[in-house]
């Protein structure tokens, strides 16, 4: 029996060439956005001619670009797709964030990881005149935010270490975690208790409670934040179960979508 052609469906009902193309894009993203053909060949165990053909197709459409070093990097056309997906992602989740803000009385945020940074994709504001406001699309270092730590806690420590090696851990405040050892210990605690706390680590006087969103296509977290005079540790005791319940509902919507 002849082997299937690269464009033919495989036994799982998917198209082999599309599977391989997606794998290449994901490998580039996991490698920090760039890699050589030989590196991609080693990781995929595909023949160099096959990878070269797929990369040339991605180059032609702007989804990959070639660097002066002869490595290949993610291309600018992906930015448009990412922005569109992010807007839809945030739009689908917004009714749930509105419910969090209404039920708990503070600002609710949804954030996900993108190229080693955490990006806010949706927010529902508190009704208080003094409230936490985060611009949708804002990118922050993950180690110093509640949503960022809740996102990192969903990754293996080896991947967290790679991210930290690429972007570092610059302090946002005097309370920010400053060493890899502190970060890994904090992530272990978050995995055990099921939620993260940002106690003035991103902004002085602001406290945040965050939980993972189960079932999200990429590590994602839901949070509630506000002035630490209102968002106390006792507030967190009642807020975290609400966040976990609604995060589960958001995850079900994303899985269904």
Feature tags:
alpha+beta, 2 domains, single chain, Beta-Lactamase, Arc Repressor Mutant, subunit A, 257 residues, six-stranded antiparallel beta sheet, three-stranded antiparallel beta sheet
Characterization of this structure:
The chain has 257 residues and is α+β, with helices and mostly antiparallel strands. The chain has two domains: 16-75, Arc Repressor Mutant, subunit A (Orthogonal Bundle), CATH 1.10.10.10; 80-256, Beta-Lactamase (2-Layer Sandwich). The chain is 47% helix and 18% strand. The protein has eight helices and nine strands. It has helices at 16-30, 37-44, 48-61, 77-104, 146-152, 157-167, 180-193, 233-256; strands at residues 34-35, 64-66, 72-74, 107-114, 117-124, 139-140, 196-199, 206-212, 220-227. The strands form two sheets. Strands 6-5-4-9-8-7 form a six-stranded antiparallel sheet, with helices on both faces. It is elongated and about 60 Å long. The model is unreliable at 1-9 (pLDDT under 50).
H/E series: HEHHEEHEEEHHHEEEH
Structural class: alpha+beta
At the first level of CATH, what is the class of the largest domain? Alpha Beta
Low-pLDDT segments, ≥5 res? 1-9
Alpha-carbon Rg, integer: 20 Å
Give average pLDDT, whole number: 85
Helical stretch tally: 8
Strand order of the largest sheet: 6-5-4-9-8-7
What number of structural domains do the residues give? 2
- The coarse overall form would be elongated
CATH H level, superfamily name of the largest domain? GAF domain
The CATH topology of the largest domain is given as: Beta-Lactamase
β content, as a range?
15-25%
The CATH architecture of the largest domain can be given as: 2-Layer Sandwich
Largest sheet: number of strands, sense, barrel closure? 6 strands, antiparallel
Let me know the number of strands.
Answer: 9
Helical residue percent band? 40-55%
Distance N terminus to C terminus?
Answer: 38 Å
């Amino acid at each position: 029996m002849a082997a299937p052609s690269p464009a033919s469906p495989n036994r799982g009902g998917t198209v082999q060439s599309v599977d391989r193309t997606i794998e290449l894009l994901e490998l580039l993203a996991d490698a920090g956005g760039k890699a050589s053909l030989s590196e991609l060949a080693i990781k995929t165990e595909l023949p160099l001619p096959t990878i070269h053909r797929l990369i040339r197709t991605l180059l032609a459409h702007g989804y990959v670009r070639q660097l002066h070093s002869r490595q290949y990097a993610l291309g600018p056309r992906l930015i448009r797709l990412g922005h569109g997906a992010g807007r839809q992602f945030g739009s689908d989740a917004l009714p749930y964030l509105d419910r969090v803000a209404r039920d708990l009385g503070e600002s609710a945020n949804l954030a996900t990881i993108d190229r080693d940074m955490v990006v806010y994709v949706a927010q529902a504001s508190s009704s208080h005149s003094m409230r936490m406001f985060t611009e949708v699309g804002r990118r922050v270092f993950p180690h110093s935010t509640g949503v960022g730590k809740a996102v990192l806690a969903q990754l293996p420590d080896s991947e967290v270490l790679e991210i930290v090696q690429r972007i570092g851990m610059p302090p946002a405040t005097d309370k920010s975690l400053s060493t890899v050892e502190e970060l890994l210990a904090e992530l272990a605690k978050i995995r055990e208790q099921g939620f993260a706390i940002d106690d003035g680590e991103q902004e002085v006087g602001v406290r945040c409670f965050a939980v993972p969103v189960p079932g999200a296509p990429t590590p994602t977290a839901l949070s509630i934040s506000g002035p630490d005079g209102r968002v106390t540790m006792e507030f967190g005791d009642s807020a975290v179960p609400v966040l976990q319940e609604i995060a589960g509902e958001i995850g079900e919507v994303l899985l269904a979508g």
